[in-house]
Amino acid sequence: MQSSTSDTGQADAAYERPLSEELASVVAGARRRALRDGDRQIDTAHLLHTLLEADPAVRAAIPGGAGQLSRLLGYLVQRSIGYGLRWRGSVEDSSAVAPRRDGQPPGWSPAAATAMTRAGLRSRERRAEQVEGLDLLAALVRDHRCRAADVLRGAGVDADALFVCLDGFTRLDGPESALPPGR
User: Fold this and answer.
1) What is the CA radius of gyration of the chain?
2) Positive or negative CA dihedral for 83, 86, 91, 97?
3) Residues 30-64 pLDDT 10s
4) Cα(5)–Cα(143) distance, rounded to whole angstroms?
5) Beta bridge partners of 63
6) Residues 6+ positions from 69 with CB-CB distance below 8 Å
7) What distance in Å separates the CA atoms of residue 106 and residue 25, rounded to the nearest whole number?
8) What residues form DSSP beta bridges with 131?
9) How far apart are CA 158 and CA 177, in angstroms?
10) Torsion sign, CA atoms 60, 62, 63, 65
């Protein structure tokens, strides 16, 4: 078993963007969750589950308040105790999969690795110093075919509306040049 420091260091190196403290904790927690569940790879559902547990900003971004968040976490718990059996032993498939790069950390599904890459690109667009949990959440909801999106749909979360909300956050949180013309 790898240590959480090793997991975080691999993710930082592979995606060339430092992770916030919360997101570093998410990466380490997702690795532990995958190992505990008997999965060979961290998938996007592992990332989503741990992201919701570790990052208050991500929890606050879920539309529908505490009731929706409870349904979503309940759905994720069901997955960890048996729902995910249909996924066990398979590689997460997604239309958004980027080609594997040298240095990509081992033990990541292609969709999870793509989500981390997209999160890094989003943080760069915001001109942030670190990749944050909301960057990863935006990357997860962007890919409609990943397991995290499947979980969100199953729990009744409108991933498209969430993405639009998070996309607006990127423009408003980032530099003036990132705002659309006329703002």
Assistant:
1) 16
2) negative
3) 999 988 888 888 999 999 999 999 999 999 999 98
4) 28
5) none
6) 52, 59, 62
7) 18
8) 19
9) 29
10) negative
Which residues contact residue 54 at a Cβ distance below 8 angstroms, ignoring those fewer than 6 apart?
22, 25, 26, 29, 133
Q: Are 112 and 129 in contact (CB under 8 A)?
A: no
Residue type (1 letter), 10: Q
Element (H, E) at 64: none
- Per DSSP, the three-state class of 131 is strand
What is the helix (H) or strand (E) element at residue 29, kind and residue range? Answer: helix 21-36
What is the distance between the alpha carbons of residues 12 and 119, in angstroms, rounded to a whole number? 12
Tokens representing 36 are 């505990």
Interval 149-155 mean pLDDT: 90
Give the integer Cα–Cα distance in Å for 115 and 130.
15
C-alpha to C-alpha distances, 98 to 8, 67, 85, 164, 179, nearest whole angstrom: 21, 35, 25, 23, 27
